[in-house]
Amino acid sequence: MTQKLRWGILGCAQIATGSVMPAIQESKTGVIEAVASRGLEKSSKVAAEFGVSKAYGSYEELLADPGIDAVYIPLPNHLHREWVIRAAEAGKHVLCEKPIALSSAEAEEMVAACSKAGVHLAEAYMYRHHPRIAQLREIIARGDIGELRAIRGAFTYNDATDTTNIRFKSAWGGGSLYDVGCYPLSAARLLFDAEPEAVTVQAIFSPEHDNVDMMASGLVEFPGGVSLTFDCGMWAYNRQLLEVLGTEGMIEIPMPFNARFEDADFLVYKGGEVSRFAAAGANPYVEQADHFAAAVNGGKPFAAENDPVLSMRLIEACLDSARRRERVSLT
């Protein structure tokens, strides 16, 4: 690459200022050219904090800047569709926070708009870019734990007292499935290397939290009789877990979705013994930025073009199942 990818940050959410912006600055391939917010005061403050030369008081101004190649969108979920499409129409590549949309129909529109504009679109599942994921997939592909039989995943935390949190706004795409359930769902699709056939989900919909799903648990059926069992929540004890069960062994990943350096190890159970694998450590946000730039510059694809659509199809099926209290088929 002769020139670093020039990024514009479309919003000043905490995920942007706390994780993604520092990662782009640390990356080998990117530089932040501009920051935009709904008001110039906020974007100017963030730009000054990060040593960014340009601050805009509207998203439109940033998209009109010809010196920006790609944008990162950390806006609330219900704004993703509009600003991904507008960014694509402005000729910008797009990295959008998860979940990428409120529905698979929205995701289809976004993918189509980016395809038409000839720009790259990716959903920001940063954990997929941690080098540990490649190690796990290699172990599974070699058959070290035999044939896959099941995956179990969990991601919960308790923030229920903060009733002003945007994650508790139903119209804005709030709820635990959108916020953290998407992680074990995404991981199962990745590790099974398949798309699910049906889901059965139960959830707690809380009236005091705008009736979003504050806790959900379910069964996701994949081809061949294998399955993911998962739970997720914003009203439960903080924890993360991912287990991959095979006919000859099992892999346990203690911190599957937020690991960086010292917490990247995982355990393999086989033949009555437990082996600790010292996984390569990394900041997954930095890896994500570099992988995105490589894809933009004609390298290895960041993800399949229709991956965001398939991701949203599964999440909306889970929500549908929880609301109807019925098994929902995806086929």
From TrEMBL:
Residues 5-123 form the Gfo/Idh/MocA-like oxidoreductase N-terminal domain. GO terms for molecular function: nucleotide binding; oxidoreductase activity. Keywords: Oxidoreductase. It comes from the Bacteria. Residues 134-252 form the GFO/IDH/MocA-like oxidoreductase domain. InterPro entries: Gfo/Idh/MocA-like_OxRdtase_N, Gfo/Idh/MocA_domain, GFO_IDH_MocA-like_dom, NAD(P)-bd_dom_sf. It holds the Pfam family GFO_IDH_MocA. Belongs to the Gfo/Idh/MocA family. This is Predicted dehydrogenase. It comes from Paenibacillus typhae.
